[in-house]
Structure formats: structure tokens, C-alpha cells
Amino acid sequence: MNKNFIFLAAIVLSSYAASLCASEKGVRASSSTGIANAWKMFRLGEYDQALKLFEKASTLAPDSSEDKLACLYGIAKTYQLRSPSPDYEEAGKVFRQIADTAPNSDLAAWSLLSIARMAHLPQGNSMPDYDEVRKLYQEVIDKYPGHMAAEEAFIYQQASYLATLEKDDAAKALENVKGFLEKNPKSKFASSAWAIQAEAFSILERSQERLDAIIKSVDLREIDPSNPIVEKASDYWKIATVAEFELGDFDTARKYYAMLRDEYPTDARCYGAKLAIERMNAKEDELIKAGKGN
Asked: What is the DSSP letter of 196?
């Protein structure tokens, strides 16, 4: 699940501390401390312990308070992401409770998005019901226009059209995403929107536009240096191979093979990048010699 969920919870908790009333300080401070400890266990993968701490903190939080909502949200996220035995049914009930009881809260928006995500990524080997999935994403978009959760819901909704690999669906996603970028050029999801365009162009067999969209997506992506999982090596490799094999654009291919080699020297694809550069250089030398011969 997107890290925005966990980061949002931390931001919400910090805002609570600044607005404590003296009469509630003891109870709410204890509750907030419990929530912070619960999230710590959650991040460590100690889901059973996290669930117990969220439930305990919930008993300390006043009804209808922000802390109460935060506890419920933590409980729902734990049920949703608990490994190896997530409980989507129980998570869905709690997410829906949040959305129904506090529809104007940030956590309501994220809760509805979580419900949609669970439908999009069903448990087991079952396939998602894409019509239902898109309706659930649309619920977030309609109820929370301008909210980050709505923008994320839009991105996932468009991605669902690409899953069919049908040209008509790809064209629909492409048109929708282009409209989104025209209205929201500085969206935090601009990179993802360009990535969706790239995949749509791939399905539509429009290689040059695909390459341009991949490059734009990579250029806009923000890399968190504290997260070793998020990197650009795979993107550099994709750009280089599309440029070389689909378009014969050796200059672009060479540039991104070299970027992969220089920025990620321990990546397993570096040797392949080295060979690719040598291969293209040899091919160009061969063409030059052939041209002189003529």
C-alpha cells in the first residue's frame, strides 16, 4: 500500500498534540502515545501486537474524537495488511465505519480509498471485478474532489483500464490521464500519470510516444534516499531497451545504458548495459564503413 497512508497517520497524530484541551490532556495524551506505539509495531511487522495496542488506545480515546478515528484507522489498516493472514472483510467494516461516522475527515477519504484498493487487489487467485473497482474509486473522487486520496484513486482507476490490455480501454485511460495532467500539472501523482500514458502507448503500439512518456515519468519522480526499494535503474533499462530495439534510437539508448552503469554500478544489468553500448558502437562503425565503401 502507498506510504501516504502511514505518513498521513503520523501527520494527523502530531496535529492532535498541538490542539489538546487541558481537561482532556491526560486521556488523549495517553491515547496518542498508545497510537504511536501501535504504528511502531505495525512498521515492524508485529501486526498482532499493533492490533492490541490500537484497540487499547481506542478504549482511552473519547468517542467521536480524532484519536478515536486514528485508532479505528490503525485497526483497519492492520487487518488489511496483516501478514500472512489479512482480513479484508473486517478491515472493510472498520473503514466503512470511519467513512460513515466522520465523512468530512481526512481519514474518511483514505478509508474509502483503502476499500477500493482491497477490491482491486483481491485475496487469493480471484480476479477483480473491474466495474465494481472503478465505481469504488469514483466514490472517492466524487466525495473528496481535490483531496490527495481522490487523485490517487484516479490514478488507480485509470490503471485498471490498462489491465485488460484492450486498445479501447487503453485509449480511454490515455484520454482521461491527459485531461488530469492539463488540470493538475503539478500533482504529486504527475509521474504516475505519465507512467500510465507510457503503458497506454505501449498497448496502442505507439513506441515514440511511449518512450517520451517513460522519460517524462522518470524525470518527475521524486526518489526518497531513505527507501532503498525505490530507484531508477529499472526505468533506465526500460528506456534504453525501448530506444534501442523499438526505435533504433542509439543516442538515447546509449545515454540511459550509461546512466544505469554510472548511477547503479552494482546492478546486475550493468554488464548487459556495457555490452549494449559496445553492440551499438560496433553497429554504427559498421554502417559508417559501409557508407564509405559506397
From this structure: H
